[in-house]
Each structure stands twice: as C-alpha cells, then as structure tokens.
Design a protein that fits this description.
With 228 residues, the protein is α/β, with parallel strands linked by helices. 46% of the residues lie in helices and 17% in strands. The chain is built from ten helices and seven strands.
C-alpha cells in the first residue's frame, strides 16, 4: 500500500452529518406539531395508490400534506392533488436515488407545515438508497408488493431493518404470483422482530382500515407526547 495516499472516509462522514441533521429536523417538527411519515418501496409497488387510500380515510381527522419525490416528472403530486384536494408538492432529486434530511427540510418548507398534523413522503422508488439516509421522519414504512416476491426481505435486509411497519400490498394477486404471506412475514421478522405487518390491497381497500388505524394511533401518540 502506498503510504502517500490519503484515504478519506467520506461516506461515513456524510451519514453522520445527515443523522445529526435528521435528529434536528425531528425536534423542529415536534415543536411545530407535524408528524412526518416516510414511505419507501420499489417502483410499481403501489405507493401512490396506497397514499391515496390512506389520506382519503384520514383527511377528515387530520390535516395532511403529501410530498412526492422522484428523479423527474410531477405525475404523482398532480394525482394526489387532483384526487384528494390536499396540498401536495413534487420533489426532484436531481438524479439522486434518495432523500436526506436537508432535502426533506427544503420540501417541508415549500409545502408549509405550520398547519399540518401529518406529512407523508413518497420516497424515490428503490429498496437500497432510501434505507441508508435518515430523512428526519418520525416513522418509516416499507411497501412490499406481491408481484415482487416473498423473498425481498432476504435480498434487501437494511430496508426492512430500518422500517417501523411493513405493508404487503396487492394481496388480491397473491394466488396468481404464488406469494406466501406467512413466509414473507417470517423473513421480515428475521430482520426486524415484532414489526407490525399489514397485508393490504390499496386497490380494493382490503386491510386499509387496520393500517390507517395504526397510523392514526402513531400520529396521535406523538402529538400527545409533545403536550407533556
């Protein structure tokens, strides 16, 4: 090894700096009374449809805003705005495959959080980069869709280790794709014991009541903590 070559652990430094910024952002959001939810998954897992079903069932109980992150286009934000009437913005990541805490802060500032109880982030679609960067969210949720296969928790362990809940979406298609929900749940629990798992179909509405009830409980508990 050439002793003249300096090695800089840049990646570790970036993560540490981002983790500090994420903790700071969470404190800022708690002070404002805004619960920030980060939803992650592969492309095509049904994130936008799941968010639509989530906010339609909760918008009479909570003041909600949505941030849609993508490399380009504003299709998802437009869909949320048109279908729900809720404030929604599109975040372009400039080619980055994830959002970090500072990107979140910029988006939250543009959306405006002073009158929102809940902000939902649809993160960039992949199961690798988003798991590595703390966005400053209060909770992280992963969507695993049936067509992806029940072995995804084995292939992308960090994503499921970082999650606070998992939604198994498109359960109505399980017989077609030979998807074993019990096996998927076992693989998930290998990575994160006792994590809540919600089998849902965002398209048909199956299981969505249980998911929304869990999320509402998380938001209310977090807001109650702020009052203590």
């Amino acid at each position: 090894m050439n002793d003249q070559i300096r090695i800089i652990e840049l990646k570790e430094s970036i993560f540490k700096d981002n983790d500090r910024d994420a903790d700071k952002l969470r404190k800022e959001l708690k002070k404002e009374g805004t619960f920030y939810l980060n939803i992650m998954s592969s492309p095509g897992s049904g994130k936008t449809t799941t968010i639509l079903g989530t906010v339609e069932g909760l918008k009479s109980l909570l003041k909600i805003g949505v941030m849609e992150a993508d490399i380009d286009s504003d299709v998802d934000a437009q869909t949320i705005s048109d279908r729900t009437g809720l404030p929604a913005i599109q975040l372009h990541t400039g080619g980055m495959c994830h959002l970090d805490a500072d990107m979140s802060r910029q988006g939250l500032k543009a959306l405006g959080t002073d009158k929102l109880d809940l902000v939902i982030l649809e993160n960039v679609g992949n199961l690798v980069c988003p798991a590595e960067f703390d966005t400053g969210a209060v909770k992280n949720v992963v969507i695993l869709s049936v067509p992806e296969g029940d072995d995804k928790p084995l292939k992308y362990p960090l994503m499921f280790e970082k999650a606070d809940a998992v939604l198994i979406n498109k359960i109505d298609a399980a017989p077609v794709f030979d998807f074993d929900i019990q096996k998927a749940a076992a693989y998930i629990h290998q990575r994160h014991a006792d994590i809540p798992i919600f089998p849902i179909s965002a398209e048909t509405g199956a299981g969505m009541d249980e998911w929304r009830a869990w999320l509402l409980g998380q938001v209310r508990a977090w807001l109650d903590e702020r009052k203590d």
